[in-house]
# Entry
Amino acid sequence: MAANDLARTLELPKRAVALVLAGGRGTRLKQLTDRRAKPAVYFGGKFRIIDFALSNCMNSGIRRIGVITQYKSHSLLRHLQRGWAFLKAEMHEFVDLLPAQQRIDEENWYRGTADAVYQNEDIIDSYGAEYVVVLAGDHVYRMNYAVMLADHVASGAECTVGCIEVPRADASAFGVMAVDASWRVTDFVEKPKDPPPMPGQPQTALASMGIYIFNRDYLFRELARDVADAGSSHDFGHDIIPRAVREGVVMAHPFSRSGVVGSGGEPYWRDVGTIDAYWDANIDLTVARPQLDLYDQRWPILTFQPQLPPAKFIGEGRPNCGSATDSLVSGGCIVAGRVTRSVLFSSVHLDTGAQAERSVLLPYVRLGRDVRLNRVVIDRGCVLPEGLVIGEDPAEDARRFYRTDQGITLVTKEMLARL
# Structure
């Protein structure tokens, strides 16, 4: 990168503001989002999903951030207040919390992602930013937004959409873009049955990552037009982006240009929106060289965590007790059982003889004596009684808990109370 290009890339984030859309229900995560919005769901032993988008902003030099919340936001707001209040207002750095508050007409809560931004337009305008970076707060990935911002400005586009290459057979779950040779978007379709292929790659499609960069004035004009359209769903993917594509003012930005490469050799992006995907992404972290390397401090992921003592392992002279292999074990954990290929969040306790294999245990979970788990996700604060076995009898698991078609069992307090 030339010196002038590098200087521009480093300077542009100061002229931008990021808006993290964090109001989603996350219904595909089933009972895991009964009490919390999807961006507030725990991930990776000590983080929340939203920490990845916020950390990407920090590492990219974008330190003016608004987080738009709506659905069951208490857990998320508490996390942001405790973990993201370190920015310096005197340096024009902040994380503003923007819950739904009927700012415009005192009648409507946020009716869609575009309406959520529109209802905060006066606050956004007060930031004085030239560019607005709109981010989904419910994906796990590392990305340098400054590179995407530089591409956006260099292209002269009014809008740039972050995109990732996916097999065409899997693309029906995404918003899919068709592009020309210059990466100008020529079509945008939400969850198409027949996704358009990439030029020269008939088996590959370009899926939207839910990441958009707009020139501020253009965005405000389009939001005003959208809110006046009674037939609109007031959503970026369904309404704003397709209209901009028809006007010919949208460029695509491939994730391969700005994704942070980890030890796996490729940039990492995951939608952990189902129980199976959530379990899989967490368990992937337990391998020796995961594609998402949380130990790579060149692009750190920041979060809030309580001040806890180190994890402790108690063997008491018994074989296979007080051990953990190929696992992530967080602070405050006390392990008197056996842990294998699992992720233990803060303050998890395993009593003597308890076993957790290929399982994800959220904070303050306690396994009683001789509990056995295999391919299980245990929600925060669950206490499993002595001798309980989950993950060995599919029919019994499905009767008592929530079991996916791929054999992952989700356990919550309410399910345990019914035993």
Notes: The CA atoms of residues 312 and 334 lie 5 Å apart. Residues 216-227 form the longest helix (12 residues).
